[in-house]
């Protein structure tokens, strides 16, 4: 068993939950961070911009989980922000590659976050699988270059797994939290046509998939992390309103208003795609949350654990 795991981006939404779940399974977890220690988890410094990484971070580590990267939806997509979104991923992978290449280590497995944004927008009939080619456009290009930077690590004889994460649902932030705000105020409504398909996934299922990727040596390459029941934006909005017992504001938010408010970033909510998780399920992985109502109920009711 690979019991020593180093996580980049460990203090983020996914990293925090994954760290907790790994420690519950008796893993030794450490973080790579731009800032000093996050309390109970040993933390090592790195600076992607300066090309600096404390090489002590990889000592005794068998698996690295790479989650670092500037938030896609955190700020408007200016030219500067786009560069930051891309380079925070590619340069961090390159820094890890150089560190592993130049130092003695025992790393056998490298599991990186990726995203279903690589597939671009799909029509109602199209179901994307891991064999589909990357689409054109900013997001798809970011994910393509991100994965290519990670694949370089496989040349060092390290098993590389890329988890292409769908719309991540968590009770502590991310897409779900943003959708909850207007609904709580009674002004929630579907976005754009409301018909765009969202391939969603519960945060705990993503974490379990990362743990499987660490433990299962059969896993190599890309795997989609999406529940096998995608829904429309309208269905997700209605499911949240139902759990919160709030009415929905009747009209949809028109696409042109979202484009005005968010600029190019509006494609995150106006475009959708239907993605298959058959590849990971064929390896015996079972999603705990396969139906949206169960996932939303789990995340938004009093438990709020994720």
Please write out the topology.
Elements: E1 4-8, H1 13-24, E2 28-33, E3 43-47, E4 52-53, E5 63-66, H2 79-102, E6 109-115, E7 127-128, H3 138-151, E8 159-165, E9 167-170, H4 174-184, E10 197-198, E11 200-202, H5 203-215, E12 221-225, E13 231-232, H6 233-244, H7 255-262, H8 267-270, E14 274-275, H9 278-281, H10 292-300
Parallel strand pairs: 1-2, 1-5, 2-3, 5-6, 6-8, 7-14, 8-12, 9-11
Antiparallel strand pairs: 3-4, 10-13
Helix pairs in contact: 1-5, 2-3, 4-6, 6-10
The number of strands is: 14
Approximate helicity band: 25-40%
Report the principal-axis shape. globular
| SSE string | EHEEEEHEEHEEHEEHEEHHHEHH
Query: What's the mean pLDDT score?
Result: 91
Low-confidence stretches: none
Percent in strands = 15-25%
**How are the strands of the largest sheet arranged?**
4-3-2-1-5-6-8-12
- What is the assembly state of the chains in this entry? single chain
Domain tally = 1
Write down the Rg. 19 Å
| Euclidean distance between termini CA atoms | 26 Å
Helix/strand class: alpha/beta
The CATH architecture term is 3-Layer(aba) Sandwich
CATH topology: Rossmann fold
CATH class: Alpha Beta
The biggest sheet, with number of strands, parallel, antiparallel or mixed sense and barrel status, is: 8 strands, mixed
The number of helical elements comes to: 10
């Amino acid at each position: 068993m690979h019991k020593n795991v180093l996580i980049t981006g460990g203090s983020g939404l996914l990293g925090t939950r994954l760290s907790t779940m790994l420690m519950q399974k008796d893993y030794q977890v450490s973080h790579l961070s731009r800032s000093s220690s996050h309390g109970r988890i040993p933390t090592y410094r790195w600076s992607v911009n300066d090309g600096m990484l404390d090489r002590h971070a990889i000592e005794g580590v068998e698996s690295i989980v790479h989650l670092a990267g500037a938030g896609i939806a955190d700020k408007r997509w200016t030219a500067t922000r786009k560069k930051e979104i891309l380079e925070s991923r590619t340069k961090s992978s390159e820094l890890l590659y150089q560190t592993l290449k130049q130092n003695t280590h025992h790393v056998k497995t490298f599991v990186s976050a990726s995203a279903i944004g690589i597939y671009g927008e799909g029509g109602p009939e199209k179901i994307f699988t891991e064999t589909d080619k990357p689409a054109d456009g900013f997001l798809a290009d970011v994910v393509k270059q991100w994965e290519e930077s990670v694949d370089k690590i496989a040349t060092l004889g390290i098993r590389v797994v890329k988890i292409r994460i769908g719309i991540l649902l968590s009770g502590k932030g991310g897409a779900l939290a943003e959708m909850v705000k207007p609904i709580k105020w009674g002004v929630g409504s579907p976005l754009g046509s409301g018909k765009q398909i969202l391939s969603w996934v519960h945060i705990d299922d993503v974490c379990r998939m990362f743990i499987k990727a660490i433990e299962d040596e059969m896993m190599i390459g890309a795997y989609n992390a999406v529940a096998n029941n995608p829904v429309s934006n309208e269905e997700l909005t209605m499911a949240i309103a139902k759990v919160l017992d709030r009415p929905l504001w009747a009209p949809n938010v028109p696409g042109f208003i979202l484009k005005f408010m968010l600029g190019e970033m509006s494609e995150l909510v106006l475009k959708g795609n239907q993605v298959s998780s058959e590849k990971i399920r064929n390896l015996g992985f079972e999603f705990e949350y396969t139906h949206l109502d169960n996932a939303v109920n789990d995340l938004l009711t009093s438990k709020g654990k994720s």
